[in-house]
């Protein structure tokens, strides 16, 4: 805690050895509490075998299976050309599925009374939510990185190099930020972690498959192609492809930004309201 | 000295029931206030309001002089809370759980580590300090939860049913811990379903029933009202039960109750036992059973309220965790 904060207790112990809580919650305190709770969220990655498996094994499996099972049939250029097409898509898909975890974790923490513990402490009310979201943003980045590493291992070498990789990651993170509020809202609205998991992931299948993630939407029946064209995931994946492999970027990026804005505008207020009511 | 807690006319309604129906309560600084009541009587709701987790619908409460509704942050700086369900972070180690809370309280990094080590030591968790709390036994979790609520050196500690579900050994350990806290000058509000626990630990007891305070006073006053023990007499010949009841009432001075075969009455003095035996003998009534036992909470309630503790519509079953929390 910074030097400006004081304690009102008559026998204030030295800050080194004692509590030193702010008389008022300042923005600086909110940031500090949020950071501590982000640290808490990240500590769990190490300790949870399921998470480590989800973060490593899933991308390896998805990238490996799609590239080598479908590769040669999907593209005249052989599996290598399908690999280049699909790695950005798998990165996006993995992150989109990872957002479901945000709602599940929130729900679990509330149900177990962990958030009650934090809320009875002299910390900023929004800190547990901030910690949960920021911690998950780090998870999303790790997910993208893992897919790209797997891609690299099987020969994915985007023309745009590191700049392209960073830019493509930034784009999918932008979208994930918007989407995680939807997941957070479900996590705060639904009763059990199981329900959050089911209702959260059900949408993810049409969203990621009926898009340009795995195939060109032009080859879909017209009604599905129409859906795929407006599907935000298509725009995210197209932007990433543009940035990594070359191709139009501006238009899909604009759509991606628009969708992110819409998602955030709707679900950020809903989620924070549900948080205030429930947590 | 001012009172640590002052609550007046607290009312809390949930969708279709009234959890608190106007509760007044005072906790003296440095003392243990026991809130005694059966499942569903409103104990947890009370604790949640006093720890700023829930807003009352009516009434007001101050903690350490601060209003729980308008000055929640000041209240949170004074209190420690150990909820009914140990809310430790399962995937974090014992140390990490405590360091996190110490850091949130503004301890420096080394200060937080030192505080965590000190509390782990105090609660005999040093050996398990580096293990995920997921691997802890029920008793260890409760102790870690309690340690977590003491990190910020609270002036006031809430313990919501700290021993429910613990085996007798862990329960005794927990009692010792609570007694130890008092030496530190911490005011404690403890909720319990066990008369014996309130008797052992509390300086003052408030009895809660259906969201209302139905009795309060020192453990001795309460026991005088409810009887410390129950005399139970079963005649060999059930036909003589009425005579037995008359004798039991005469000796105990309390209203007798009976089942098909047995007469019961609350007694405060063990000396009634030989007296009852003598009178039964005089009447030539042979006995199948004669016992003096601790009253169950039901009997205490019956004595205090005139109705058993478990005849409330909506059920008194242990509420599942999800019902205990605020949902809307
Ligand atoms: N979040 C809630 N929603 C609806 N009813 C609740 C909620 N919390 C408590 N109740 C009800 O309020 C009453 C008092 O509950 P509680 O305070 O948990 O009692 P205790 O802790 O003494 O067992 C119970 O009937 C319970 O079902
Ligand atoms: Mg309770």
Automatic annotation (TrEMBL), chain A:
<dbReference type="InterPro" id="IPR013525">
    <property type="entry name" value="ABC2_TM"/>
</dbReference>
<dbReference type="InterPro" id="IPR051784">
    <property type="entry name" value="Nod_factor_ABC_transporter"/>
</dbReference>
<feature type="transmembrane region" description="Helical">
    <location>
        <begin position="162"/>
        <end position="182"/>
    </location>
</feature>
<dbReference type="GO" id="GO:0140359">
    <property type="term" value="F:ABC-type transporter activity"/>
</dbReference>
<feature type="transmembrane region" description="Helical">
    <location>
        <begin position="253"/>
        <end position="271"/>
    </location>
</feature>
<keyword id="KW-0813">Transport</keyword>
<feature type="region of interest" description="Disordered">
    <location>
        <begin position="1"/>
        <end position="22"/>
    </location>
</feature>
<dbReference type="GO" id="GO:0046677">
    <property type="term" value="P:response to antibiotic"/>
</dbReference>
<feature type="domain" description="ABC transmembrane type-2">
    <location>
        <begin position="50"/>
        <end position="278"/>
    </location>
</feature>
<dbReference type="InterPro" id="IPR000412">
    <property type="entry name" value="ABC_2_transport"/>
</dbReference>
<feature type="transmembrane region" description="Helical">
    <location>
        <begin position="52"/>
        <end position="73"/>
    </location>
</feature>
<feature type="transmembrane region" description="Helical">
    <location>
        <begin position="127"/>
        <end position="156"/>
    </location>
</feature>
<feature type="transmembrane region" description="Helical">
    <location>
        <begin position="194"/>
        <end position="215"/>
    </location>
</feature>
<keyword id="KW-0812">Transmembrane</keyword>
<dbReference type="GO" id="GO:0043190">
    <property type="term" value="C:ATP-binding cassette (ABC) transporter complex"/>
</dbReference>
<dbReference type="InterPro" id="IPR047817">
    <property type="entry name" value="ABC2_TM_bact-type"/>
</dbReference>
<keyword id="KW-0472">Membrane</keyword>
<feature type="transmembrane region" description="Helical">
    <location>
        <begin position="85"/>
        <end position="106"/>
    </location>
</feature>
<protein>
    <recommendedName>
        <fullName>Transport permease protein</fullName>
    </recommendedName>
</protein>
<feature type="compositionally biased region" description="Low complexity">
    <location>
        <begin position="1"/>
        <end position="15"/>
    </location>
</feature>
<keyword id="KW-0046">Antibiotic resistance</keyword>
<keyword id="KW-1133">Transmembrane helix</keyword>
Automatic annotation (TrEMBL), chain B:
<dbReference type="InterPro" id="IPR017871">
    <property type="entry name" value="ABC_transporter-like_CS"/>
</dbReference>
<dbReference type="GO" id="GO:1900753">
    <property type="term" value="P:doxorubicin transport"/>
</dbReference>
<keyword id="KW-0046">Antibiotic resistance</keyword>
<dbReference type="Pfam" id="PF00005">
    <property type="entry name" value="ABC_tran"/>
</dbReference>
<dbReference type="InterPro" id="IPR027417">
    <property type="entry name" value="P-loop_NTPase"/>
</dbReference>
<keyword id="KW-0067">ATP-binding</keyword>
<dbReference type="InterPro" id="IPR003439">
    <property type="entry name" value="ABC_transporter-like_ATP-bd"/>
</dbReference>
<keyword id="KW-0472">Membrane</keyword>
<dbReference type="GO" id="GO:0005524">
    <property type="term" value="F:ATP binding"/>
</dbReference>
<dbReference type="InterPro" id="IPR005894">
    <property type="entry name" value="DrrA"/>
</dbReference>
<keyword id="KW-1003">Cell membrane</keyword>
<dbReference type="InterPro" id="IPR050763">
    <property type="entry name" value="ABC_transporter_ATP-binding"/>
</dbReference>
<dbReference type="GO" id="GO:0043215">
    <property type="term" value="P:daunorubicin transport"/>
</dbReference>
<keyword id="KW-0813">Transport</keyword>
<dbReference type="GO" id="GO:0016887">
    <property type="term" value="F:ATP hydrolysis activity"/>
</dbReference>
<protein>
    <submittedName>
        <fullName>ATP-binding cassette domain-containing protein</fullName>
    </submittedName>
</protein>
<comment type="similarity">
    <text>Belongs to the ABC transporter superfamily. Drug exporter-1 (DrugE1) (TC 3.A.1.105) family.</text>
</comment>
<dbReference type="Pfam" id="PF13732">
    <property type="entry name" value="DrrA1-3_C"/>
</dbReference>
<dbReference type="InterPro" id="IPR003593">
    <property type="entry name" value="AAA+_ATPase"/>
</dbReference>
<keyword id="KW-1278">Translocase</keyword>
<feature type="domain" description="ABC transporter">
    <location>
        <begin position="5"/>
        <end position="235"/>
    </location>
</feature>
<feature type="region of interest" description="Disordered">
    <location>
        <begin position="307"/>
        <end position="328"/>
    </location>
</feature>
């Amino acid at each position: 805690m910074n030097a400006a904060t004081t304690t009102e207790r008559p026998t204030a112990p030295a800050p080194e050895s004692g509590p030193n809580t702010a008389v008022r919650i300042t923005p600086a305190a909110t940031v500090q509490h949020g950071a501590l709770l982000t640290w808490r969220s990240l500590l769990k990655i190490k300790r949870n075998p399921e998470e480590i498996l989800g973060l490593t094994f899933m991308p390896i499996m998805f990238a490996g299976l799609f590239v080598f099972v479908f590769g040669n049939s999907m593209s005249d250029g052989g599996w290598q050309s399908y690999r280049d097409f699909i790695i950005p898509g798998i990165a996006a898909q993995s992150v989109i599925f990872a957002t479901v975890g945000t709602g599940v974790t929130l729900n679990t923490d509330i149900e177990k009374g962990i958030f009650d513990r934090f809320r009875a402490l002299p910390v900023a009310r929004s800190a547990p939510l901030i910690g949960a979201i920021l911690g998950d943003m780090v998870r999303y980045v790790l997910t993208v990185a893992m897919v790209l590493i797997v891609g690299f291992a099987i020969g994915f070498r985007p023309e745009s190099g590191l700049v392209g990789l960073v830019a493509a990651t930034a784009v999918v993170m932008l979208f994930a930020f918007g989407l995680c509020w939807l997941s957070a809202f479900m996590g705060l609205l639904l009763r059990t972690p199981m329900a959050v998991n089911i209702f959260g992931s059900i949408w993810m299948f049409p969203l990621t498959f009926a898009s340009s993630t795995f195939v060109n939407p032009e080859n879909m029946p017209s009604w599905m192609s129409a859906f795929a064209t407006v599907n935000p995931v298509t725009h995210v994946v197209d932007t990433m492809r543009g940035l990594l492999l070359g191709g139009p970027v501006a238009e899909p990026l604009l759509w991606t930004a628009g969708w992110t804005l819409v998602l955030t505008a709707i679900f950020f207020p809903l989620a924070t309201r549900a948080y205030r009511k429930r947590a | 000295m001012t009172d640590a807690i002052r609550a007046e006319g607290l009312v809390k309604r949930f969708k279709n029931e009234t959890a608190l129906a106007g509760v007044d309560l005072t906790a003296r600084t440095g003392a243990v206030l026991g809130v005694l009541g059966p499942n569903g009587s409103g104990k947890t709701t009370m604790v949640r309001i006093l720890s700023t987790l829930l807003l009352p619908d009516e009434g007001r409460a101050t903690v350490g002089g601060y209003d729980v509704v308008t000055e929640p942050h000041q209240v949170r700086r004074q209190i420690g809370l150990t909820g009914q369900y140990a809310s430790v972070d399962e995937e974090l180690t014992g140390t990490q759980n405590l360091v996190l809370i110490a850091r949130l309280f503004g301890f420096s990094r080394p200060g937080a580590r030192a505080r965590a080590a000190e509390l782990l030591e105090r609660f005999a968790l040093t050996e398990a300090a580096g293990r995920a709390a997921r691997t802890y036994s029920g008793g260890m979790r409760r102790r870690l939860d309690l340690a977590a609520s003491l990190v910020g050196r609270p002036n006031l500690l809430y313990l919501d049913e700290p021993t429910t579900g613990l085996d007798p050994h862990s329960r005794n350990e927990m009692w010792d811990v609570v007694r130890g806290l008092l030496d530190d000058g911490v005011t404690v509000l403890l909720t319990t379903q066990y008369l014996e626990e309130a008797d052992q630990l509390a300086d003052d007891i408030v009895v809660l029933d259906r969201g209302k305070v139905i009795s309060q006073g020192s453990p001795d006053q309460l026991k005088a009202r409810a009887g410390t023990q129950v005399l139970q007499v079963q005649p060999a010949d059930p036909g003589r039960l009425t005579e037995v009841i008359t004798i039991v009432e005469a000796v105990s001075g309390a209203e007798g109750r009976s089942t098909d075969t047995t007469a019961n009455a609350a007694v405060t003095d063990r000396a009634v036992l030989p007296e009852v035996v003598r009178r039964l003998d005089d009447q030539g009534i042979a006995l199948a059973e004669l016992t003096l036992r601790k009253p169950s909470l039901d009997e205490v309630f019956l004595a205090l309220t005139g109705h058993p503790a478990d005849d409330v519509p909506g059920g008194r079953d242990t509420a599942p965790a999800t019902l205990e929390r605020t949902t809307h």
